[in-house]
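Here we describe the complex-level prediction in full. Unlike the single-chain runs in Section 2.1, the two entities below were treated as one system.
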Amino acid sequence: MTTETPDLSELDFATDLDAAPLAIGDDVADLLFREARTVNAFADDEVPDGAVRAAYDLVRWGPTAMNAVPLRLLLVRTPEARARLAAHMNEGNRDRVLAAPLTIVAAADTDFHRHLGTLAPHAVRLAERFAGDTGSRTGLARQSGLIQVGYLITGLRAAGLHVGPMGGYDAAGIDTEFFTENGWQSLLVLNVGQPAVADATRPRGLRLTYTDVARTV
Amino acid sequence: MTTETPDLSELDFATDLDAAPLAIGDDVADLLFREARTVNAFADDEVPDGAVRAAYDLVRWGPTAMNAVPLRLLLVRTPEARARLAAHMNEGNRDRVLAAPLTIVAAADTDFHRHLGTLAPHAVRLAERFAGDTGSRTGLARQSGLIQVGYLITGLRAAGLHVGPMGGYDAAGIDTEFFTENGWQSLLVLNVGQPAVADATRPRGLRLTYTDVARTV
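The structure predicted for the assembly as a whole is:
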């Protein structure tokens, strides 16, 4: 594989000198992003439905294509449902699902067009075209749904929760297990709760800087 | 098309009674989500690079699969680059790109694996497998890249900017125009700046509620 590696001095925690100040306080910036960490081990405390609801009530206002709002949430709570989900996770994620106080399957509703009359009355002719075009519907649902997953992770943290997102699973297996009747497609599986007292996170990984990722033309 | 429509009483601005309180203040919740609006017409004021940098410096800490951090940003500033981009936008978005003070093409780097030695030293064997598997790389880059677009939109607002995301464009055309040499794939095009004094936004669209989108098993 190619061995190109970014300059390590570019990858530390220092903020670039010419970054403008944020419009939010340091405490919020830390809570939502800078000090928030992916959690692998959770405390046993139950995660109240109201906290997830508060997160969704916040982030549902984030923009989506045509205001389609295709993100759907399957909250996996019972031991039976947990076992059904765990069977489709990669081996390294299976015990995490079984141990987490709450696991959410974030999904995209490929039948989102049924709601466009309410959500996007200005685009109702597009909605009719979507009705006969499963491919376009799936593409839009997944694109906007994943952007909404980004909002959701931020929103769960804004509601005081911690998340452990997991991409390692058999998506087709999960969709067959849970979504044959409603046209949802899994986008990401997230464990949710409060961190365990010990060994909740890995050491902090580095990140690419603005200089690494941005180009101007 | 199917005419199923959610109950309008479920779609108003009222917060469900049993939502838990947020861990962030109302001012921040309003700035990032609740009162933030998609902007279609921008003021002429230049958007300083430092504000975009501040947004990225914040949101780079958001989680991605394997810590791959695949989001890349093309800032389109010159009139010549603006015209090249506008040529690939759908007709309704063309004038918006030409008029915006700054347009960002958010993209996924399908060659993200070159950085995994630094970003994810624990996953270096996976990195080697990715080197020979363009399909898996593209899937992961687009999945995590879109989630990062959700963080980015939130982060631009946290930096005091407003956004007008546009999904209507010829993605292959943009990729050929700008990304033949670096393996990036366009994910979303965003106009960025401050709202124009008049007619900056459409009337607020409704949103699906938690009850509409969440199921528990």
